[in-house]
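Dear U.,

For the methods section draft, I wanted the exact inputs and outputs in one place so we can describe them consistently. I've listed the two proteins in the order they'll appear in the manuscript figures. Please don't edit the token lines directly; just add comments below if something needs changing.

First protein:
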Amino acid sequence: MSTETIEPIRGQLGTELARSAATRDPFRGIIGHERVRESLLKAVGSGRIHHALLFAGRAGIGKRLLAVRFAQLLMCEESQPGAGEERVVACLECRHCRRIQADAHPDILRVEPDGQGIKIAQVRELQKKLTYKPFEARFRVVYIDHADAFWIAAANAILKTLEEPVERTIFVLITDQTHKLLPTIISRCQMVRFAPFDAETVRVFLLDRGVEAAVAANVANLAGGSLERALELAEGEMLARQVELLDVLDRLDPTDPDTILEPAGTFSADKEELFTVILMIQAYFRDLSLVRAESSLERLGFKERAPRMAERARGLTLLGLERAMNAISEVTEALKGNVNARLATEHLLFELALVLNEPRA
């Protein structure tokens, strides 16, 4: 056979092998979280899987997506848990993979808040289902979404279940508020920490979804490492409200109640939107800190306001900026509870007004 004949065959073979390798990549289609992926693959490949995993990290960074893929690695018809990492796959085509993806698999159980939280009746119902063996797959996976939302009686009940592992059953608890979980529940789980995405990853993610380059660059610095929040910012009305928000911050005056009360009422009308507004406020003060420290303007979320921010930053102290960031963090955590959103927003804007108008010694 001539060289001319062999080379095309080699090229075709190389392409097929590359395609086969990509098809067998157990985490294809999932962005980032390499350490988490390595940890899950190692556990499934070795067969030494902790009976309860706690997926912890801020909202919108892919915890639920990886929880679904983890279940597929365990249940896929082509996967061989315990036979080595190279034999762990998620084909995404077999009946188990497709039904898991569609949230319609009988061996996937889900517990999530019913109203204000996860109640004892929900845990009792789960415990009843756990008395049966898995129906179809080799494993059963229990997702507990918003695991920080257990009522105290329900938390104590699920703790008993976690203390007595159920055969062929893996719990995946998902939370973005680990501090609200009982320490005893945390101690029964293997912690899997999810880090926020860096701004460049968020920017590329948005570009791949057709977001304009200027918008993607801006949003990437405002999204707090959350792809979900980035999409909300890019597709929603919040970008159009940036100018309004910045004008509000420029006008804040602790001696003029109207500069605080009026915007507080507007921002707190929708609690979900309020979290986005606070995230943008946090980005604003982060930018002020960067300008104050004479860092590169490329890192700013509000590049178009750089000259104005430089002027404002010169009048601020590092201690004042720290107080502002602490106030933002405290109000953010408080709003995750049952506090009055308007009063919390008024308090935050008043604290920020004090910082922004504090005479510099």
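Second protein (the one for the lower panel):
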Amino acid sequence: MEQEIRIYLTNLGKYNEGYLIGEWITLPISDDELAESFERIGINEHYEEYFITDYEAPFEIGEYTNLESLNNLACELEDIEEYELLEQYFEEYPDDRLYDMDELDEILYEFTPMDIVRMVHFGDFNFNDDYFTFDGYGNLESVSSYSADKHNDYIIKDQLNNLVNEYI
């Protein structure tokens, strides 16, 4: 691998007390080596949290990026023969970041997998399409509006049913 992924792993508890205690580690790293590194920087029962203070990588790494995911990525990168293509990708798209899978819901803007499948299948990528419909020139109807009147409830339900039948 031409470019290593190196991170400066820092003890968060000591950092909050005013001490910068950490060390550079090169990924991928074995579990035993990581445990030794944690021991050297004081990650134990008293100080359990760590964060990434600095990094050297062809992509951005956040302070609280999941270390296990990052290590798995480094293992995969070792196996890539076309590393130059990957470097070129990160040069062209420098704002791409690694995200923890726990943040997937935020990344997808709280869409369910079925919502995404429907959008891809029907080419429906305008997120406002679900809320507005045009029934003629100058007539804009809001499907997301709620009316407390019993009189208008059936109209809204009818509009929703028509939209569902139209798009599915």
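Candidate sentences for the figure legend, describing the second protein: Residues 5-97 form a domain with the Ubiquitin-like (UB roll) fold (CATH 3.10.20.480). The mean pLDDT is 72.

Thanks,
Y.
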